[in-house]
Amino acid sequence: MNECDVVPIGGYPEQQAEALFFLNQQGEFSHVNEQFTALTGHTAEALLSRSLAELVDPDGAAAVGQVLAYALHGHGLTFDARLRTAAGTFVRFALTTFPQQPAAQTAGIGGILRLAETAQQTDSAVREREKQLSIISRTIADVIFVLKVETAGQYRFLFVNKAFTDTTGLRGEQVVNRLVQDVIPEPSLSMVLANYQQAVATKRRVIWLETSNYPTGQVVGEVCVTPVLGDDGECCQLVGVVHDLTAQHKVEEDLRASNERFRYALKATTDALYDWDIQADTLLWGEGFEDLFGYHLESNPSEFGQWSDFVHPDDAAHTVDTLLNTAHQTTRNHWQQEYRFQRADGTWATVFDRGYIIRDEQERPVRMIGAMQDISARKEAEAQQQRMAQELFAQNADLQQFTYIVSHNLRAPLANARGYAQLLTRLPTDSEAFATSLGHMQTSLEQLDIVLNDINDILSIRDKPAGRQEKVHLSSVCEQVRQNLAETLSASGGTLTCTIPPDLSVVGNRAYFHSIFYNLLANAIQYRSAERPLHIEVEGGCAADGNKVVTVADNGSGFDLDKAGADVFQLYKRFHTTPKGRGIGLFLVKSHVEAMGGRIEVSSRVGEGTRFTLSFS
Amino acid sequence: MKTFLIDDDNLGNYLTEQLLRIEGFSNTIQTFESAQEALETLQQCATETPAVIFLDLNMPIMNGWQFLDALVPYESRLRGRCRIFVLTSSLALADMEKAKTYDLVAGLIHKPIDSEEIQAIRSQLEDEDIV
């Protein structure tokens, strides 16, 4: 037995048996052991004198030749090769070859055969890749799982990554190798099974959103299940990835909640919010605008004119112009104004408008966000308060006037009466002075009575400011007064022309109008000029502003308006010495006119005449 | 003693005149129904300056205050020779206060004047040696 036979067989009897083979210099088998036969099925007898190249699959045959040449030159080598077994199939093996008797020229080649799967010589690149995959699967935040598709719609977990166990709180052994229905509870189970089924059936990826409650909290995820097809083209595995959208979902949810709050705030506010795109010059309105002013917007955003055209013309200058000026000519951010804004029904709302102008880096105006607040009710209340204050003021003035009347005009005749009563006791009863004084005392008492009646008249107007309201035809009242005064008028040699249209009427108190015409005409007769026959002209009509206007003009003696001033209509103010007036007529006229909401003005020139102008809305 | 009565109310003038006569206050009493008339008389005849003027306040055209204002230029001539008494039916305190601001006004009397007031004025004038 030569060395070649002894060394390999007897050399390692106690060691784990390896499959050994020996080749001669031509690469033909000279010997194989039992382990070799066990791995390949080939017996030593069958292989004798057959070359190794014959067993190697044709693709690898060329490589084998080189390896063997290498070994014959004294170098050991391990290589992969697919060898045909005795059964006729190819099996991958790792072959390690080394020179036998390297010094001898006749030496052959020894070899060890191992199954490639158990070979220690694993491809390092593959190992590296596996390692990387493992790192990725452990560190990736997305949940990854692999399901084995079994029959009857059953799915078994083959693999889950670290994110899976972290997220679900389940340990790996609670999941892997278990059926999906034993891991996932209802109601999620039905949904995922349906989706798995769809992926299997369609062989396409299925994606859905899922909200699940895990021990670590609620997770909103995008689940993506991809089918893996086997050699038979059927789906054998499903690879699932769950991308955690919880944070993103929360942002969206917060945004939605914020938008919702804003929407409800819009509903809650009675203001008309707007967003003015200054470059495009359009206005985007909140729903308050239509509610507040009754408009139906044809389009939203609307043209700028939807706002500017409805600002009251008298307010436009300090509203529209200042807004445009603030936006374009200044760098200010705030603008606010109070103005009147026309409602859809044509009425005017008083509006308080406040806006914030957004500017770009060059301070150019970009947008303005603002709100129009309807303050009409508040304004009305303020105006009401103002009116009340004025009424109070007027009443106070009346009270002062009343004190004046008491002190001067009531007390004057009373003082005279007292004086005469005192005087009479000291005069001889048969004297002429006694008779005169007695007559004067009677006159004084009559004057006292007249003043008391005047006061009664005045107070009755004040107590019932408007009296009974009716449609009063002014021409008929004027005609009635003319008849009452006809005798006095003709006695004075005067004439009266009344050109008030018969249909001109004012809503008021007929008795008041009677008093007005009576006092004005009586005044005209009383203060006629001695130098010319009296002529009175009464005219009436409608003014451009819709007011009813009546003028009573005479060519009488007139008076100095500069001196009389505000006293013309004052109670017990007189501007003539003769003949004697009581100074109550014009006061009553003014009281009656104002009680019916009208106004009275006077113009007069000494020696030319006097003209009274009355106007009623 | 020359006396002027200025009052647009002739009943008032007649009453005051009769009372003054009964009391023997004055032998020369001149009545004016308008303040303007009285002013013109005062301006024209410096020699005819009355020792006493009874002046009403509430009159048309020119009231008592306007009359007093119009007299301001003649104050130096009148001072010490002419006493003006406001004779009014007004009880207003404001009138009382205002009257005190005029140097020529010697006092304010509420209508009607009575004999005691007339005697008081006379004795006041006698003390000042005007009569």
From TrEMBL, chain B:
Gene3D superfamilies: 3.40.50.2300. GO terms for biological process: phosphorelay signal transduction system. InterPro entries: CheY-like_superfamily, Sig_transdc_resp-reg_receiver, TCS_response_regulator. SMART domains: REC (SM00448). It comes from the Bacteria. This is Response regulator. It comes from Hymenobacter busanensis.
